[in-house]
Amino acid sequence: MHVVIAGCGRVGSDLALRLSAGENDVAVIDESQKKLAKLGDAFNGQIEVGLPYDVDVLRLCGIERAVAFVAVTPSDNANLMAAQVAMKVFNVPRTIARLDDPARAASYDILGVEYVAGAHMVSTVLYQQIIETELDFHVTFNDPYSEVAIVDLHLGSEAEGTTVADLEIKGRLRISAVTRRGTTFIPGPDTVLHADDMVVAATQHGVLRKVKKYLVDKKPRLE
Q1: Which of 17, 71, 164, 185 could cysteine-pair with 97, CB 3.0–4.6 Å?
Q2: Which of 89, 121, 153 delimits the end of a domain?
Q3: Smallest Cα–Cα separation from 178: which of 153, 141, 214?
Q4: CA dist 86 → 69, 98, 153, 163, 204 (Å)
Protein backbone atom coordinates (compact mmCIF):
# COMPACT_ATOMS: atom_id res chain seq x y z
CA MET A 1 0.00 0.00 0.00
CA HIS A 2 1.43 3.37 -1.03
CA VAL A 3 0.78 6.24 1.40
CA VAL A 4 1.91 9.85 1.11
CA ILE A 5 2.25 11.86 4.33
CA ALA A 6 2.57 15.64 4.35
CA GLY A 7 4.20 16.86 7.57
CA CYS A 8 7.02 15.24 9.51
CA GLY A 9 6.40 16.50 13.03
CA ARG A 10 5.63 14.18 15.94
CA VAL A 11 2.40 12.87 14.39
CA GLY A 12 3.65 12.55 10.82
CA SER A 13 6.94 10.91 11.74
CA ASP A 14 5.30 8.42 14.09
CA LEU A 15 2.72 7.49 11.46
CA ALA A 16 5.40 7.15 8.77
CA LEU A 17 7.52 4.85 10.92
CA ARG A 18 4.53 2.69 11.86
CA LEU A 19 3.38 2.33 8.27
CA SER A 20 6.90 1.65 7.07
CA ALA A 21 7.41 -1.01 9.74
CA GLY A 22 4.24 -2.66 8.46
CA GLU A 23 5.89 -3.07 5.05
CA ASN A 24 3.88 -0.30 3.43
CA ASP A 25 5.37 1.97 0.78
CA VAL A 26 5.56 5.42 2.39
CA ALA A 27 6.63 8.85 1.15
CA VAL A 28 6.93 11.86 3.47
CA ILE A 29 6.94 15.54 2.55
CA ASP A 30 8.10 18.39 4.76
CA GLU A 31 9.54 21.86 4.28
CA SER A 32 12.30 21.03 6.76
CA GLN A 33 15.15 18.71 5.82
CA LYS A 34 16.03 18.60 9.52
CA LYS A 35 12.64 17.17 10.45
CA LEU A 36 12.82 14.58 7.69
CA ALA A 37 16.27 13.52 8.86
CA LYS A 38 14.83 12.67 12.26
CA LEU A 39 13.06 9.69 10.71
CA GLY A 40 16.43 7.99 10.95
CA ASP A 41 17.70 4.73 9.53
CA ALA A 42 14.62 2.84 10.70
CA PHE A 43 12.58 4.51 7.96
CA ASN A 44 12.93 2.82 4.59
CA GLY A 45 10.55 5.06 2.66
CA GLN A 46 10.97 8.16 0.50
CA ILE A 47 11.46 11.71 1.75
CA GLU A 48 10.97 14.94 -0.18
CA VAL A 49 11.59 18.54 0.88
CA GLY A 50 8.82 20.86 -0.26
CA LEU A 51 5.33 22.25 0.26
CA PRO A 52 2.57 19.72 0.99
CA TYR A 53 0.34 21.10 -1.79
CA ASP A 54 3.05 21.44 -4.46
CA VAL A 55 1.88 19.33 -7.40
CA ASP A 56 5.42 18.57 -8.59
CA VAL A 57 6.52 17.46 -5.12
CA LEU A 58 3.44 15.29 -4.76
CA ARG A 59 4.18 13.65 -8.10
CA LEU A 60 7.75 12.92 -6.98
CA CYS A 61 6.22 11.13 -3.98
CA GLY A 62 4.10 8.90 -6.19
CA ILE A 63 0.78 10.55 -5.36
CA GLU A 64 -0.74 9.18 -8.55
CA ARG A 65 -0.50 5.63 -7.22
CA ALA A 66 -1.23 6.43 -3.58
CA VAL A 67 -4.19 4.77 -1.90
CA ALA A 68 -4.08 7.26 0.96
CA PHE A 69 -2.86 10.79 1.60
CA VAL A 70 -2.47 12.26 5.09
CA ALA A 71 -1.85 15.96 5.77
CA VAL A 72 -0.56 16.55 9.30
CA THR A 73 1.44 19.77 9.07
CA PRO A 74 1.07 22.37 11.87
CA SER A 75 -1.02 24.56 9.53
CA ASP A 76 -4.75 23.88 9.13
CA ASN A 77 -4.77 25.93 5.92
CA ALA A 78 -1.89 23.94 4.43
CA ASN A 79 -3.52 20.65 5.42
CA LEU A 80 -6.82 21.67 3.84
CA MET A 81 -5.14 22.79 0.61
CA ALA A 82 -3.01 19.66 0.39
CA ALA A 83 -5.98 17.38 0.98
CA GLN A 84 -7.95 19.22 -1.70
CA VAL A 85 -5.13 18.78 -4.22
CA ALA A 86 -4.86 15.08 -3.39
CA MET A 87 -8.62 14.63 -3.78
CA LYS A 88 -9.41 16.83 -6.75
CA VAL A 89 -6.22 16.73 -8.83
CA PHE A 90 -4.95 13.22 -8.18
CA ASN A 91 -8.16 11.41 -7.13
CA VAL A 92 -6.51 9.73 -4.14
CA PRO A 93 -9.09 7.26 -2.75
CA ARG A 94 -8.58 8.26 0.91
CA THR A 95 -7.44 11.64 2.18
CA ILE A 96 -7.28 12.68 5.84
CA ALA A 97 -6.24 16.05 7.22
CA ARG A 98 -5.23 17.16 10.68
CA LEU A 99 -7.40 19.90 12.18
CA ASP A 100 -6.22 21.88 15.20
CA ASP A 101 -8.72 24.75 15.25
CA PRO A 102 -12.30 23.48 15.79
CA ALA A 103 -13.62 26.74 14.34
CA ARG A 104 -12.41 25.57 10.92
CA ALA A 105 -14.35 22.31 11.03
CA ALA A 106 -17.19 23.74 8.93
CA SER A 107 -14.78 24.57 6.11
CA TYR A 108 -13.46 21.02 6.08
CA ASP A 109 -17.02 19.66 6.06
CA ILE A 110 -18.15 21.91 3.21
CA LEU A 111 -15.20 20.84 1.08
CA GLY A 112 -15.72 17.18 1.92
CA VAL A 113 -12.32 16.73 3.55
CA GLU A 114 -12.10 13.96 6.12
CA TYR A 115 -10.26 15.16 9.21
CA VAL A 116 -9.02 14.30 12.66
CA ALA A 117 -9.50 17.08 15.23
CA GLY A 118 -6.43 16.68 17.42
CA ALA A 119 -7.20 19.28 20.08
CA HIS A 120 -10.74 17.99 20.58
CA MET A 121 -9.58 14.38 20.81
CA VAL A 122 -6.97 15.21 23.46
CA SER A 123 -9.42 17.26 25.51
CA THR A 124 -12.01 14.46 25.27
CA VAL A 125 -9.53 11.88 26.58
CA LEU A 126 -8.52 14.21 29.44
CA TYR A 127 -12.18 14.83 30.29
CA GLN A 128 -12.86 11.11 30.33
CA GLN A 129 -9.89 10.41 32.61
CA ILE A 130 -10.93 13.13 35.06
CA ILE A 131 -14.71 12.76 35.09
CA GLU A 132 -15.70 9.37 33.71
CA THR A 133 -13.18 7.33 35.66
CA GLU A 134 -14.95 3.97 35.40
CA LEU A 135 -14.90 3.87 31.60
CA ASP A 136 -12.02 2.80 29.38
CA PHE A 137 -12.64 4.44 26.01
CA HIS A 138 -11.58 2.65 22.82
CA VAL A 139 -12.72 5.10 20.17
CA THR A 140 -15.11 7.93 19.44
CA PHE A 141 -16.86 7.31 16.13
CA ASN A 142 -15.80 8.98 12.86
CA ASP A 143 -17.07 12.46 13.69
CA PRO A 144 -14.68 13.72 16.41
CA TYR A 145 -17.59 15.64 17.93
CA SER A 146 -19.75 12.54 18.12
CA GLU A 147 -21.52 11.65 21.34
CA VAL A 148 -21.06 7.92 20.78
CA ALA A 149 -18.05 5.89 21.89
CA ILE A 150 -17.00 2.27 22.39
CA VAL A 151 -16.14 1.60 26.04
CA ASP A 152 -15.14 -1.16 28.45
CA LEU A 153 -17.34 -1.49 31.53
CA HIS A 154 -15.72 -3.42 34.39
CA LEU A 155 -18.63 -4.71 36.46
CA GLY A 156 -18.53 -4.62 40.25
CA SER A 157 -20.48 -6.45 42.95
CA GLU A 158 -23.69 -4.46 42.36
CA ALA A 159 -23.95 -6.01 38.89
CA GLU A 160 -24.05 -9.59 40.20
CA GLY A 161 -27.22 -11.28 38.94
CA THR A 162 -28.36 -8.44 36.70
CA THR A 163 -29.09 -9.06 33.03
CA VAL A 164 -27.93 -7.34 29.88
CA ALA A 165 -31.41 -5.83 29.55
CA ASP A 166 -31.09 -4.38 33.07
CA LEU A 167 -27.86 -2.61 32.16
CA GLU A 168 -28.80 -1.36 28.70
CA ILE A 169 -30.43 2.04 28.23
CA LYS A 170 -32.53 2.42 25.11
CA GLY A 171 -30.87 4.74 22.62
CA ARG A 172 -27.97 5.47 24.99
CA LEU A 173 -26.14 2.25 25.91
CA ARG A 174 -26.01 -1.04 24.03
CA ILE A 175 -23.93 -4.06 25.07
CA SER A 176 -22.15 -5.95 22.29
CA ALA A 177 -19.82 -8.39 24.08
CA VAL A 178 -18.97 -9.83 27.49
CA THR A 179 -15.61 -11.20 28.61
CA ARG A 180 -15.73 -13.62 31.55
CA ARG A 181 -12.75 -15.58 32.87
CA GLY A 182 -10.87 -15.16 29.60
CA THR A 183 -13.77 -16.08 27.31
CA THR A 184 -15.56 -13.49 25.18
CA PHE A 185 -19.08 -14.04 23.88
CA ILE A 186 -21.99 -12.09 22.40
CA PRO A 187 -24.79 -11.88 24.97
CA GLY A 188 -28.54 -11.78 24.60
CA PRO A 189 -30.88 -9.52 26.55
CA ASP A 190 -31.47 -12.25 29.15
CA THR A 191 -27.77 -13.05 29.69
CA VAL A 192 -27.01 -12.91 33.42
CA LEU A 193 -24.05 -10.72 34.34
CA HIS A 194 -21.56 -11.27 37.14
CA ALA A 195 -19.14 -9.21 39.17
CA ASP A 196 -15.76 -8.86 37.42
CA ASP A 197 -17.28 -9.30 33.95
CA MET A 198 -15.81 -6.96 31.34
CA VAL A 199 -18.56 -5.60 29.12
CA VAL A 200 -17.99 -3.86 25.78
CA ALA A 201 -20.67 -1.32 25.00
CA ALA A 202 -21.59 1.46 22.60
CA THR A 203 -22.60 4.41 24.72
CA GLN A 204 -23.27 8.11 24.69
CA HIS A 205 -20.97 10.31 26.73
CA GLY A 206 -22.51 11.24 30.06
CA VAL A 207 -24.33 7.94 30.52
CA LEU A 208 -22.00 6.98 33.39
CA ARG A 209 -24.22 8.47 36.08
CA LYS A 210 -26.96 5.99 35.18
CA VAL A 211 -24.81 2.86 35.38
CA LYS A 212 -21.91 3.77 37.69
CA LYS A 213 -23.35 1.81 40.63
CA TYR A 214 -22.70 -1.37 38.64
CA LEU A 215 -19.06 -0.55 37.86
CA VAL A 216 -15.71 -0.92 39.55
CA ASP A 217 -14.30 2.49 40.40
CA LYS A 218 -10.65 1.96 39.46
CA LYS A 219 -9.32 5.47 39.90
CA PRO A 220 -9.61 8.03 42.69
CA ARG A 221 -12.14 10.77 42.11
CA LEU A 222 -11.23 14.44 42.28
CA GLU A 223 -13.07 16.28 45.03
Answers
A1: 71
A2: 121
A3: 153
A4: 7, 14, 41, 50, 34
